[in-house]
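During the second year of the project, the team shifted from modelling isolated chains to modelling whole assemblies. The rationale, set out in the original proposal, was that interfaces cannot be judged from single-chain predictions alone. As a representative example for this report, we include one of the complexes processed in the last quarter. Its constituent sequences, exactly as entered into the pipeline, are reproduced here:
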Amino acid sequence: MSESIKRVVLAYSGGLDTSVILKWLQVTYGCEVVTFTADLGQGEELEPARAKAELMGIAPNHIFIDDLREEFVRDFVFPMMRANARYEGDYLLGTSIARPLISKRLVEIAHATGADAVAHGATGKGNDQVRFELSCYALDPDIKVIAPWREWDLTSRTALIDFAEKNQIPVPKDKRGESPFSTDANLLHTSSEGKVLEDPWEETPDYVYSRTVNPEDAPDAPEYITIDFEKGDGVALNGQAMSPATLLAALNDLGRKHGIGRLDLVENRFVGMKSRGMYETPGGEIYARAHRGIESITLDRGAAHLKDELMPKYAELIYNGFWFAPEREMLQAAIDHSQEKVSGTVRLKLYKGNAGVVGRKSPFSLYSERHVTFEDDAGAYDQKDAAGFIKLNALRLKLLARRDR
Amino acid sequence: MSESIKRVVLAYSGGLDTSVILKWLQVTYGCEVVTFTADLGQGEELEPARAKAELMGIAPNHIFIDDLREEFVRDFVFPMMRANARYEGDYLLGTSIARPLISKRLVEIAHATGADAVAHGATGKGNDQVRFELSCYALDPDIKVIAPWREWDLTSRTALIDFAEKNQIPVPKDKRGESPFSTDANLLHTSSEGKVLEDPWEETPDYVYSRTVNPEDAPDAPEYITIDFEKGDGVALNGQAMSPATLLAALNDLGRKHGIGRLDLVENRFVGMKSRGMYETPGGEIYARAHRGIESITLDRGAAHLKDELMPKYAELIYNGFWFAPEREMLQAAIDHSQEKVSGTVRLKLYKGNAGVVGRKSPFSLYSERHVTFEDDAGAYDQKDAAGFIKLNALRLKLLARRDR
Amino acid sequence: MSESIKRVVLAYSGGLDTSVILKWLQVTYGCEVVTFTADLGQGEELEPARAKAELMGIAPNHIFIDDLREEFVRDFVFPMMRANARYEGDYLLGTSIARPLISKRLVEIAHATGADAVAHGATGKGNDQVRFELSCYALDPDIKVIAPWREWDLTSRTALIDFAEKNQIPVPKDKRGESPFSTDANLLHTSSEGKVLEDPWEETPDYVYSRTVNPEDAPDAPEYITIDFEKGDGVALNGQAMSPATLLAALNDLGRKHGIGRLDLVENRFVGMKSRGMYETPGGEIYARAHRGIESITLDRGAAHLKDELMPKYAELIYNGFWFAPEREMLQAAIDHSQEKVSGTVRLKLYKGNAGVVGRKSPFSLYSERHVTFEDDAGAYDQKDAAGFIKLNALRLKLLARRDR
Amino acid sequence: MSESIKRVVLAYSGGLDTSVILKWLQVTYGCEVVTFTADLGQGEELEPARAKAELMGIAPNHIFIDDLREEFVRDFVFPMMRANARYEGDYLLGTSIARPLISKRLVEIAHATGADAVAHGATGKGNDQVRFELSCYALDPDIKVIAPWREWDLTSRTALIDFAEKNQIPVPKDKRGESPFSTDANLLHTSSEGKVLEDPWEETPDYVYSRTVNPEDAPDAPEYITIDFEKGDGVALNGQAMSPATLLAALNDLGRKHGIGRLDLVENRFVGMKSRGMYETPGGEIYARAHRGIESITLDRGAAHLKDELMPKYAELIYNGFWFAPEREMLQAAIDHSQEKVSGTVRLKLYKGNAGVVGRKSPFSLYSERHVTFEDDAGAYDQKDAAGFIKLNALRLKLLARRDR
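Output from the structure prediction step:
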């Protein structure tokens, strides 16, 4: 708090918490605040944020409201999906992957407005502070980052609301009490954590879910869809060409309807503790399975297995906030190199929480019916080759066995 | 075929194909045949195999019928599950993991009966020949392995049936025509491949499934179960202690009922081609998810992430037939070392193809509500530590950014 | 041998063995032979190969003699050096990296001359047959590859010489007896194996070395040199700009003089056995150390460690012959991505077998004296940050320790 | 500094810096100090430390002087050497591997004396603070760790000496000025860094080296030695059985004499900056090469390559201070599993900075002259097997090539 700040760009949702932060920055640092509100597909109206910012004295040209949905999906979600990234085996990284984009815009707006600092509303216990700050520092090593939750003394809900009231910040009725859990949402997912979810033995209450119907309430009839891929990225749903964000939104609708993409997970945070989260990634789950499906016929084994070996590290880097680190970019270069022929069509069956691949075809298919067939293969494969293949693969094991008996 | 063989142990199911092999071995090598029929939980009567072997002139003391179900699950399936092994992201390795055990018994019986060779009924295009032979050579480098499908000229169904009829081998009516697909079954799974499954764009016909009901026909109400783990292995279902094979069998019943564990996959064979398989792993799928669930609260992040990084290689080794290779054993040593405190209870919800973890608890839990809470944590965690943590993690990125701008 | 071959491109050195192969191909396959002799810097005259080929009836337009030295170093050696590749910790892959280039030219010449096959002189026990054939098949899946050493019955030296004499192939006097060891040479290295080297307990006799002086006979005074790098590749020696092959040749002279780059190794062949080889890589050893030196100040830790983790697999792929495989190309894409700023100057001291980096500088250096200094760092680094860094890194270990005590 | 400390165990060398720390702890925390001085083979008299501690008022039963040399080599250096660990390709981790042992004793002594804290003399910029503290927290999550260099204001040499003089701490004449570099020593190595070494372009001055003669001054005649290994650990030199520490000390003498094990390195610290260090690891370098030599004939390829793939991560864990982390223990379990038959004898030639393996033999050798020979192998290896081996390894590459042309 001792640093002198002239102007700070705040990641501003328009909600109570970031409004308090806005005021706190003005009060504490005596600095100008620039607000940045991003549409990442979280499904909220953004214009109210403008009105609120204006009310708090922000100059109109210092209020930034950006629709980042296409950039989000095209430059962040899709590249990550090319890697089949899942953190700790399951989590599709919906929150993690949004942070670098928000950070990128924070820094861009700082440069555009001559600000010397950025601020975010992430707490001191979570991963998001790390993701925001590593990204910002990687993009501008001289930027100052203010993390009010780590600095201020508004550590209880009451203190926060007191501060709001003292500073004429409207407090919506439903924000007076403690929220029963905390959420983050964007086009890829909604995450929920905290409070009612803190006991990992207790099942997640139904009211926590907001993006998917309960599979038990989903349609009794399955629905079949196709997704077309070009060079590793989705380009069409049921034969209809769509932009990245449009495609993901359409898959979200399908996933919501069929109760797909719910995940109840205890995960390991980068800051060293375990946390329990509930994720809903309806479209992302369908997309991820479809991507593996198209890879299964278009990727060579060597490429596929290398990708599988690299994936845990790649996912960990994104989870930990190292999107803008050289090693993530190196892995991306390897992954992208593999996607040149990952084109074709995948057919999936959606049914009550399930999204299963049931068919895949491609002009670049490496699947050779002629080789694999139980029928006469017209000489495509000489079974006698297998004898030599096995003999030489066995040689070292035989030498070992001779030694060790 | 030029080698002189005195006595050969044949992996013998009692079916038409291995009966033809039995006779073919007698005719071609002029050798004694010892039959070995294993109960791996494939769900077939084994005693008929004895009668058939006797009919073909096998001496009673050369007919081996073993119940290997407990050994299979305890010493092969469970160790593999400790690794969370899935080949190419999905396949639970149900066929791959049975081959080393069958090979081990083939070699043991060869030693017990003074046989100098073993024989198996795997074709020259598949992975199983590799798995059988690598395992046998690793256990006895001097054993001879006969793979009739790579040697003989019975390359069409007609030729096979002709041979059977010429040699008084009864041919069941339903075996006269081509089977519409080929299967392998054991306590862990049933796999199906070939024929009607050869076009990867065509959905698997419903009649291919034998181990699970169609999720659409599964009960409309979810069922909750608990699985208890001790040191990484399942020990009880719904609080009732069970042996490994009993537990897996009980989970199979649950999985069957709820349509869990179906997988339609195009995979990369070790011999270099892609194949399309349909797998049903009802109990295994439930078990695998439960194991990850108990690990999520009992494994440290460092251990968990290392396991995730090692898993693809471990799964590939098993898929490729290297169970008895030193590198698989080294990985197993690492994995087993991590399981000491992987004990506790997982609660799952089974519903129409879904098996989701909804709760987990353990006396060895590393999940600390005190640390993660949004509430006052009584000093368990100092949020200001995060600032230094981020600063030093960012240092190299800042140095990079300064250089590269 | 049963296949009908019309025209075959033979990798032809002009020596006795490949001359016998040339004739054997003519006799056995009744086909036309195209000879291909490559200058890879092995240090032998190539024109005699032309005369010999003409003598054996090869049409002048079917005799190819190519100087591939620059392509070899630029497109094969340098990319590999960017990876710091060493097989089994030590071997700089001098033979392995030449095979894909020879294969590439074999296939190109086959296409240019309408040949349907290629042939090489590698034996059936070694790695080179694998490297040649995998490369050829990857470049032309329909090419036929003839490996005479696996086919013919000239399995003894006597039989080979008999065949030569019967077919009017001149046999040099020194080739009548057995050679005491076998060698392969190119601009990167000379390897020796076999015969006198077959007992891994026996020290390599001095007469085996041909590319380096014995360190004991090297100059008593050290010599200092500098190598300049641009984007990961060497571009100048002692400030003098040089092409890739010229630079490597100049380093070879220096390495020879100072007895640098001798390696006595027992290695694991891809075909399953161990072999003992003696390698001399004088310039390559110097270059490899210099490359690590320039990386040490220009590569970020994340990039450097990722490279170190990927290297063993990358080296194994090259050793095993998978240069033209997608996974090698993916790894190359990752590695090359890291080399953008690997530019600067390395200073080395050469002395009696040692080539040590003693200085490195770069306009893109990430080394920050300001940060690392024991002196006052003017606020570049706040030591108190370390406390938080350590606390959060320790958190999971503390939680573990609390559980496990 | 705000915490109340009753009794603290200080890692105490007896030198000026830790004497100042001792006094500073007494003054600042008003607590009792327990001193712990370890003989790790650093080559200094330890008894003077006792006298100094007594002079500063430490009770005799609170002065601990332990000879840890055998434990150091047996339980830390040798296990690490089994892994062939080198950080960033070169560094043998001589400082890193000593820190966990010192930490272990600090915590043990804290428990024995009822101390609630430990203190170390590592600065806030280096890796050692991390290594000490992670180890201590892993062994006792409730221990407090005091790092005076991060807390106090004695940030200049003058301030430190002033404090010493004010507090009657004798200041040796040669400590009045700035030391031209900083060192750490133990039985495995001596490291030097800082001051005259801070410019990575400047060659290390000769006076920095203390453990090895300049290779130019080493004997003109090579010396041959043998090292015997049992289960991965060295047990004898030139046929004479020795304890771990005795063996390493004897190798140090040999390495010193022949100028072996000097390393000039720019490395990446865990805290995010690069530093330049000069290491002398005379015996360790010889030992490390010998260990690889015995592995080369006794380890199977699968085990050897897995070890090479795991090594960079293992070395990074030790460098970063995670010796007592589960993932290091898991890797150790895998590595140790591989060493069961790593027994035999290695012969090395030591000459002016070089330590090359020239011979290796073992009763457990996997090297098979019969297989590898160029001579008649009596049927040990059928060269025709190679054809099938290559064909099936090529199959996927052919399928790719057909698709992509």
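The longest helix of chain D spans residues 384-404. Chain D has a mean pLDDT of 95.
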